[in-house]
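Page 42, continued from yesterday. The earlier attempt failed because a stray header line got pasted into the input along with the sequence. Redoing it now with the clean sequence only.
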Amino acid sequence: MKHVDEFRDGQAARKLAAAIARAATRPWTLMEVCGGQTHSIVRYGIDQLLPGGVELVHGPGCPVCVTPLETIDRAHAIASHPGVIFCSFGDMLRVPGSRGDLLQLKAQGADVRIVYSPLDAVNLAAANPDRPVVFFAIGFETTAPPNAMAVWIAKKRKLANFSVLVSHVLVPPAIAAILDAPGNRVQAFLGPGHVCTVVGYEDYEKLSAQYRVPIVVTGFEPVDLLEGVLLAIRQLEQGRAEVENAYARVVDRQGNPHSLKLVNEVFEVCDRKWRGIGLIPSSGLRLRPEYRDHDAEQIFEVDDIETCESSVCISGEILRGLKKPHDCPAFGRECTPHSPLGATMVSSEGACAAYYAHGRHLELVALT
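This time it went through. Structure tokens are written below.
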């Protein structure tokens, strides 16, 4: 397939892996930020191609995984209201809250619907003027533009029955929090290609300069990722710390100005709690005051929520790059995609789900 096959070329991948082995003269730890990158790394065995001293750890770039438990429980509370049509992308339906998930609520009679675009939820609100329609607006900078568009259109069309439950997070503050955390061992980052398609990478240049850490923006195919690792290793070996763009066919420095203008019109920056990590200042988005009439949290008054996390799940340590899925005693045993204990197992971008889907749990079985 044009523009895909060449980035999955086995010979090119092996050459890059050999170049990495030649370039690395000491141990280095790199973090890929995006969950989509994690799945590609595990699917293609990229981490197993690298020389022994070069380690890839998995970051918090899975939007489902970092949506805080309080927000999941608020979604459940709203979806349980009589008459509410609660809309969400499918990957949120099985994320465990304190007392079950949205799919279970749907089975109990709640009107929970899977949509493929936030605009589907806007159209539902227009078609059902007597019922409140709520869209679960989660994600990184990548999904902020379509969610902002949905709110903007609803306001323009005066759809008072449409609202959003917002849990948007921003990547650069999370990288800073990882670098500031005690015990951090990440020395370079593979930057999130999809996020940078929207926002560019100027903010990453500030991070790189402040923390003296290499950041290489990469795509999601094997050749993309291996090229990103090679560029990062070369920087580390040479004592350099800068942003390099290894995804230039998609990403430029300024990002998408039209998307950014819309996002900045509808949303403003706020502090945000991340599941497994905690509160990160200025790491999220919320609706601006002129759009608060479409804020589901205010409409349904669901601030007072008591949560109950699993005592076994170590997803927080996995999201911070401190541990990997196979370090969890429940991985592949009590915790599977069919009975997930945490969001990193149920999400299509979660590290635990990636390890399980590509047989890494079978390695544990063979050792026991």
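Notes: The first strand starts at residue 28 and ends at 34.
Reminder to self: strip header lines before submitting.
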